[in-house]
Amino acid sequence: MNKPSFILLTALLLAFVACSKDDAGYRDNEWGYLPTEDGDNEVSEPAQVQFSAIATLFRTESGQYYLQVDANTRVYPANFEDLCHTEPECPCRIVGDLTVFDRQIRDLGYYGVLDWFEFLEKGPVLGERGEGKDGVDVLADWMTSLEDGFLTLHFQTWWGYETRRHELRLVTGTNPDDPYELLLVHNANGDPKSMQADALVYFDLQGALPKPEDPDNTTVTLKWTNDAGQIQSRSFPYAGRP
């Protein structure tokens, strides 16, 4: 994963412009207003909510894209293909701002639009440690999560001012007594410690870990070494994908 994908996370969340609703030809009368159901043929603005989210992008067999925001919220972004001109590998993880309307598509989910979004970088899950003894801090906030079989990490580490490739990987099989224990390994490839910055990466655990026999009571334990040389850990409920 290349450093430029990561070091501008704060600016990306505050003022991302590459995939904005204006660039995509967003029009209020196209997406933001839906017909009423009282038979008078008037057009009114439905209740709506705007929020930032990290979500899983899925594609149905018919080719329709939707976002699984949490276990109970599925959003069909009407302007996704206007913002994304290449066919993404699905499922995958994205970060962005959503506008969701209080109008359901039958029982499938909600109407919505993406104000902007960016695909997250995907890291490898391997059975061997490989190189990498550099410290990294996993931040305990809403962006760090295990959903839909994807472990998404909001992390912080040191970077140099020149472009160097940083490598983050998950290692399985480190604890013979617990197949759900994972080790996060960071290789900065000699990047000087000039500044600290945070970034996002995700890992697909589906197929890399045993299928949970009891999805309601299975826990993944993540371990890593922080910049102070201390071993840290955090646990996540794990059910995988259906």
Describe the overall structure.
The protein is mainly β and 242 residues long. It has two domains: 9-119, Beta Barrel (OB fold (Dihydrolipoamide Acetyltransferase, E2P)); 122-237, NigD-like, C-terminal beta sandwich domain (Immunoglobulin-like, Sandwich). It is 7% helix and 44% strand. The protein is built from three helices and 17 strands. It has helices at 9-15, 28-32, 80-83, and strands at residues 34-35, 43-44, 48-59, 65-70, 73-77, 92-105, 109-119, 122-123, 125-126, 137-138, 145-147, 150-159, 167-171, 181-187, 195-204, 219-225, 231-237. The strands form four sheets. Strands 3-4-5-7-6 form a five-stranded mixed β-barrel. Strands 8, 10, 11, 12 and 15 form a five-stranded mixed β-sheet that branches. A five-stranded mixed β-sheet has the order 9-13-14-16-17, with no helix packed on it. The protein is globular.
Distinctive features:
OB fold (Dihydrolipoamide Acetyltransferase, E2P), globular, 7% helix, 44% strand, mainly beta, 242 residues, Immunoglobulin-like, 2 domains
C-alpha termini separation = 29 Å
The portion of residues assigned to helices is under 10%
Please write the CATH class name of the largest domain.
Mainly Beta
Helix- and strand-based class?
mainly beta
CATH fold naming of the largest domain: Immunoglobulin-like
What is the CATH architecture term of the largest domain? Answer: Sandwich
Question: Biggest sheet, in brief?
Answer: 5 strands, mixed, barrel
Estimate what percentage of residues fall within beta strands. Answer: 35-45%
Number of domains: 2
- Average predicted confidence as pLDDT: 82
* Oligomeric description of these chains: single chain
Strand order of the largest sheet: 3-4-5-7-6
Weakly predicted, low-confidence segments: 1-44
Q: Rg from C-alpha positions?
A: 20 Å
CATH superfamily of the largest domain: NigD-like, C-terminal beta sandwich domain
